[in-house]
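Lecture 7 notes: from sequence to structure.

We start with a single chain of 265 residues. Read the sequence below before looking at the structure.
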Amino acid sequence: QVEDALHFDIDMLWIGARTTVNPFSVQEVADALRGVDVPVSVGSASVTNGNVTTVSFNKDTSAATLRYYYVIPAEAKGQTVSFKFSVTSSNGQTKTFNLGPYTISKMDMVRNLAVSNNANAYISIENMAVYNSAAAATNAGKVDLVYLFRNTTTSAFNHALVSPGADPAYLPGVTLPAGVNRSTKMRKVFNLQDYNLAQLQYGIYIDDRDFVEINLADSPNYAINLRAEAGVWVETADGKYRAYVYLNSVNAAGTAVISIKRYAL
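Now the structure, written as tokens:
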């Protein structure tokens, strides 16, 4: 009987009282329905007009869960948003729920950028991008960091993020593209695994408040001896951005994968 109902696209089954008290009958029904997913539409597709989204229920519904996905427009970052949910029943009764206001984060994020020693080594916080030497020359005013790897026996250098305007001692063997000379403040940290950037099972969330409160005024313009899962707080030379650069992975071949959260000041 269950098989016949499924064959004719029946989307609702009534299980009577005599069946529910019989565990063998209930098991037969469960076995017949195993792996079967019969969706039941209870409302029309949503229609959005300006700031109002409307859904009309086409089934007699006493309760429903509405999942509302809000796509944040770029101009809304840093602003507040509120939501009002209103429902009108078939008998004219109405109910309204007001939610918010909520402050929308100003942060931007990019993940899994590949950097490599003496190649794709130039990092722009403003553009959230990595450049090779030629591309860095055409974006010279926006290059904030240089990635390099030096395996020396005389100093603990290894993987590093260095400001183009740093002392040349921190840029050994690097010939900077023309015009790449910004001095970027930075602070190296360990054990700060942002959940969004690290993509690990555990972590914390770096948010807008962290970028507002951190003080990088007396910070150096280089961070050397970095390792996987380390991070660097950054403030650009023009004071327009603060960022957190996370090292997802590094290797002895002189490459790394980084992810960035950026906050506009």
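The mean pLDDT is 89. Keep this in mind for problem set 3.
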